[in-house]
């Protein structure tokens, strides 16, 4: 078909696509800001300055700081879930978990954000409560499924209660990250590796 006959996308669709790209770029930038400076002590105006956009634009896309935080958490879950799934598929859960903890040791700001948000979101009135509670359930279910895969592959002890082990592992991961935030001498990977080895088939 000649170029002259090509139908251009409607202006509204183009504006929407550009707006979504701008929104995604703001979320990525805000994630870095939260990782470096935290969340509680920043106003929406300060976040806008740090991200490099106007306060008006930030309010246009997200409305308030809580909605921006929700977008950051969703983006982080999507990114981390894809990466973890790839790592688990390549190495299996028991080998991959210590590698994840080594990775987490390189992003202290994000780990601090995760830890603080989980603690704050215990309050049912917190704007991220439902999301954080759902995230915890999804992560525990994913660990349970990966433990089942390890058992099917013959890597896991037969006497392991998978539901209990999934709860223990997720609680240990969150707990050791808190300990590490308080004392960077804690070797998170070694702690998780030791627990994983206790689950292995000998």
Automatic annotation (TrEMBL):
Molecular function GO labels: DNA-binding transcription factor activity; transcription cis-regulatory region binding
DNA-binding region range list: 43-62
Domain HTH tetR-type, residue spans: 20-80
PROSITE patterns to which the protein is assigned, alphabetical: HTH_TETR_1, HTH_TETR_2
Record's keyword terms, sorted: DNA-binding, Repressor, Transcription, Transcription regulation
Pfam families: TetR_C_6, TetR_N
PANTHER family, per the entry: HTH-TYPE TRANSCRIPTIONAL REGULATOR BETI (PTHR30055:SF234), HTH-TYPE TRANSCRIPTIONAL REGULATOR RUTR (PTHR30055)
Protein name (Swiss-Prot/TrEMBL): DNA-binding transcriptional regulator, AcrR family
Top-level taxonomy: Bacteria, Bacillati, Actinomycetota, Actinomycetes, Actinomycetales
């Amino acid at each position: 078909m000649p170029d002259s006959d090509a139908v251009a996308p409607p202006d509204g669709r183009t504006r929407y696509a550009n707006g979504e790209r701008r929104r995604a770029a703001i979320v990525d930038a805000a994630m870095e800001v939260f990782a470096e400076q935290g969340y509680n002590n920043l106003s929406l105006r300060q976040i806008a300055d740090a991200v490099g956009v106007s306060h008006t634009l930030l309010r246009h896309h997200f409305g308030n700081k809580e909605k921006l935080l929700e977008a950051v958490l969703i983006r982080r879950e999507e990114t981390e879930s894809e990466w973890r799934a790839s790592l688990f598929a390549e190495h299996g859960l028991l080998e991959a978990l210590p590698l994840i903890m080594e990775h987490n040791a390189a992003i202290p700001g994000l780990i601090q954000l995760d830890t603080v948000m989980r603690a704050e979101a215990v309050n049912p009135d917190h704007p991220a409560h439902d999301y954080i509670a759902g995230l915890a359930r999804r992560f525990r279910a994913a660990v349970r499924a990966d433990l089942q895969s390890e058992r099917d592959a013959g890597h896991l002890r037969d006497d392991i209660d998978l539901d209990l082990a999934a709860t223990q592992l997720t609680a240990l991961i969150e707990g050791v990250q808190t300990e590490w935030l308080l004392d960077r001498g804690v070797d998170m990977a070694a702690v998780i590796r030791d627990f994983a080895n206790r689950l292995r088939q000998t």
